[in-house]
Amino acid sequence: MAPPLPPGLTPSEVGFLCEMEHVTVIPRQTLDGLELLGGPTGALKPPFPTPLPLWLALLLKKQRRANITPPPWLSVEALTQILDFETDERTAELFSPSPNLPPATTSAPLGDAATARAQADALPYHWLEIGHLLITHAADDFDDLDAVRKLLRDLREVRMSKLRKGFEVLDAGGGVKMNGVGGMEIAEVRGFVGGVVDGLRRLNRSREESRKERETEERENGLGSSSYRDDEDEDML
Amino acid sequence: MASYYSPTAILTDAQKAPATFSLAVPALSHSPLNNNSGTPITPATTLDLPLWLAEMLAVSRPSGPASAPLATLDMPSALGPKVMNALTADATSVELRQQAQWFYGLGERMLELFEDEEMGAVLLTTFKQRALEIADKAQNTRTAQQGGDSGDFMSGLDETERQLFRAAHDGTHAVKRWFEATSRG
């Protein structure tokens, strides 16, 4: 049997998927609306801002046909505010909250997470990837590029260290509260956390099984103390 | 029972545990199991048998439900009281690899056969503490390579822990690679 692929998305896959998110684009040339598989995009009439999927926005940017507006949360003020929230001692257990999600649609695009109408005080799911892509390829659209880059890096470090602290409460049966953690951050720790929880589960298995047997015995009160299912090798005649 | 095709399960089951025979088995005197010595296997001979064989013998009832099994199984030394005490004292300083290459697998199989709550609890806390240490080391690979005594911890990891370390390291590495790849294009 071929070695199985690791379960879940790898970081490069997450990075690829983030390009489905919409960003606000200020076109420099007119372009008709495109009939994409995910749905039609609006026509581009400069200078009106239009939402487009990130991959298309990056392509147009490279061809100098458009500029990308950084979403409100990707500014120095917003990132500083979020960083203060994260580093505050009182929120050592929490991550900064995610934006209010729109009512669930059937598929991507995932709402306005990265457009000009995004919520300015919350990091959307793909904040790390979108932030990185925008500062790399749309550098001139930012007011203070170095500050934004530094803030993104600081945010990433703070959140990763919080995640690692959360490892201590991993348990065989329990879940970990991870509200607000981004896609790339999860992808980074997925292999490790999955391995640890699996190992704990296996070590706990015999305890789990004996606990379950005891519970089923207690439920079937009339059978007395011995269970017929105890020893599979014996035939009860 | 562990999965049939998994190399991990096969290697785990190949680890040895002491088994005491309760009857004579003259035909096995020259087998590799007996270190190829000619000494006959009489009742009360204790040999180190691989887990899959030892378990079969310990569970078998050759003459029906009431008879004694062919051999009794003891706890291997890797899970003995000395190791357990060392783990309770300081889990990260014990060289698990020396005890058994697939230490946690061995512990899991033993827990299946013997219901030892205390050993189960010790193994769980050990696993968690060492996992935290592994996460630490996976982050700071540069300092780990230079540091001398951290090499002891890394060489003392058993196979499951090595896979954990690789998973943690791969995750960080993959993210870094994605950042570099997108910066170029």
From TrEMBL, chain A:
Q: Which UniProt keywords apply?
A: Chromosome partition, DNA replication, Nucleus
Region entry Disordered, spans: 203-237
Major location (coarse) = nucleus
Segments of skewed composition (Basic and acidic residues): 203-221
Q: Which GO terms describe its cellular component?
A: GINS complex
Location(s), subcellular: Nucleus
Q: Which residues form a coiled coil?
A: none
User: SUPFAM superfamilies per the record?
Assistant: GINS helical bundle-like, PriA/YqbF domain
Every GINS subunit domain range? 73-202
One Gene Ontology BP term is: chromosome segregation
| Limits of the DNA replication complex GINS protein PSF2 N-terminal domain | 10-68
Indicate whether DNA-binding appears among the record's keywords.
Answer: no
Q: Which InterPro entries match?
A: GINS_A, GINS_bundle-like_dom_sf, GINS_Psf2, PSF2_N
Q: Which CDD domains match?
A: GINS_A_psf2 (cd11712)
**Would you say which domain of life the source belongs to?**
Eukaryota
PANTHER family per UniProt: DNA REPLICATION COMPLEX GINS PROTEIN PSF2
Family membership noted in the UniProt record: Belongs to the GINS2/PSF2 family.
| UniProt function note | The GINS complex plays an essential role in the initiation of DNA replication. Has a role in chromosome segregation.
Complex formation? Component of the GINS complex.
Tell me what this protein is called.
Answer: DNA replication complex GINS protein PSF2
Q: What is the lineage of its organism?
A: Eukaryota, Fungi, Dikarya, Ascomycota, Pezizomycotina
User: Could you tell me the gene encoding this protein?
Assistant: PSF2_3
From TrEMBL, chain B:
Q: Assign the protein's first listed, main location to one coarse class.
A: nucleus
Limits of the GINS subunit domain = 80-179
Q: Which SUPFAM superfamilies match?
A: GINS helical bundle-like (SSF158573), PriA/YqbF domain (SSF160059)
UniProtKB keywords = DNA replication, Nucleus
Subcellular location per UniProt equals: Nucleus
Q: Which InterPro entries match?
A: GINS_A, GINS_bundle-like_dom_sf, GINS_Psf3, GINS_Psf3_sf, PSF3_N
Where does the source fall among the domains of life? Eukaryota
Its Gene Ontology cellular component terms are: GINS complex
Boundaries of every DNA replication complex GINS protein PSF3 N-terminal domain copy: 5-59
Q: What is the lineage of its organism?
A: Eukaryota, Fungi, Dikarya, Ascomycota, Pezizomycotina
Q: Which organism is it from?
A: Friedmanniomyces endolithicus
Name recorded for this polypeptide:
DNA replication complex GINS protein PSF3
Q: What does this protein do?
A: The GINS complex plays an essential role in the initiation of DNA replication.
